[in-house]
Write a structure and sequence with these properties.
alpha+beta, Tyrosyl-Transfer RNA Synthetase, Structural Genomics Hypothetical 15.5 Kd Protein In mrcA-pckA Intergenic Region, Chain A, 5-stranded mixed sheet, 5-stranded antiparallel sheet, 49% helix, elongated
Length: 539
Amino acid sequence: IYMHEILYPVLQGYDSVMVDSDVTIIGSDQLFNEMMGRFFQEKFDKKPQTIITTKITQGIDNKHKQSKSLGNYIGLAHSPRDKFGRVMSIPDVLIDEYFRVYTDVPLEEIDRMAEQLSHSPKECKMKLAYAIVGRYHGHEAAVAERDWFEKTVSKGLVPDDIPTLSIVQPRHELLDIVAQARPGKSKGDSRRLIKQGGVDINGIKHTDPDAELIFKTNDVLKVGKRNWFRIEVVKLNELETEKLWMRPMRVEDVDLIQKFLPDWEIVKYLSHPGLSLKAAVDVAREVFRRVILQPEPKDEWIWKIQHKDEPEKIIGVAHLRRDSARGSENIWLDPEFRTPELMEQALHAVNEHAFSQLGFSDVVFKKAFAHASAPQDLDALRRRFMSMDATFRNRDTPEGIWGFTKEEWERQKEWFLTNRPEAALQTRAVNKRRKSARLDAHLDAIEDIVEDALEDRAEDREDAVEQKKRERDNAFAMKAASDKHAAELKQEEQRLAAETKAAEQKAKAEAKPVKPPKPRKLTTHPFLIGGTKPVPGKK
């Protein structure tokens, strides 16, 4: 016997004491542990709990008993669809046992079903699933799940009420999408499922986990036998100004801007210093692919810039990253479209998104800004800073580094509204972002209120539990004190009784016996006044 085999029933039994258990429902294999609970409850002067045991049945894999850790169980908390599907996956040998244990179908009817079970087990299994779902969720739910199972699994049709799987980029490896659809499974398990033919897209099976596919919104992904997902390619981090569209760059867009790369000096700041221009271009292309293929960008973003008058043409690129040591922001525009107005709009859109949506605390340009834009744009930025009042200039960045903090960005916008209203970008997109920011602030305030209420409730619950514990401890202490006082009184009474008895015995032992007086002999005759002494020898 190992130590854990001794400690486990002791700890589980003590649980029954701490929760004041009245009734416990367990599998028959836990009977000894809960009997320990009854034993401890009696030791603590509590009423022993009532124990109800249930039959231990095999799991749906027919290899081990039902276990949550193994996943081979049908739980009360499972949805009607999960219950129905899990019942339909059990081996035929378990149908009779599951009928007897988990349904309220009369035993006579189960006995009559034995012959049907040997000829058509699938029909019996459908009846079993219907009975289990109907018992816990009602007749209507059982009918709905039976119809859903017959339409989707049996006939291979796609159900209408399937969940949505949102992705940021349309191009993904199949393994990444399947892993996203199965968050509780490992990538190795998902890879095996794909190779075994358990994944299809729009009815077409795919068996290569490393295949790079292009997904579209409303594509249907089927994973396993009864899990469907409707793909939705969300438009994340899209920006808009008065004259520009700024959308997240895709892999195919890298080839479209290929003709600009030889003249694009910013690539040297996306790669290692000292490389040749061709090598720097190749490294920059790989940097783009790495950033673009992120499932959900968190630290680095790349936008393609398009003019609203020519939306089919890419006129520039904006690059943003959280690593301020290397420069947070780089913006490049085609020389044909490089004007202060467009550069300012792109700069404003990226900064506003970085501060209001992505939670940036500061943005730093460094020298990359000089190469990413025309020199006159850098001069314009310098003039903008120098024309501002000294109190509005940013002093939080080191000497020689251009940039500003979130607070400085708000001051800049305020300064522009006052001094250059024509340069303030009051577009619908900006107003929409401000409205979104106000809504976010309102939601944050509501969330804070809810969190405070939940914390107060949790504290009240903890206080109530603590108060109950103190009351229980006080009751135990008072009872112990009362029992101790009663025991002391009883001992005192016994001591006094013993002393009294001992004193009585001692007094009795020391007392002298009283002898009766001896009868006195008469020396004269009672009828003689004078009397004479009797003569010895004479009567």
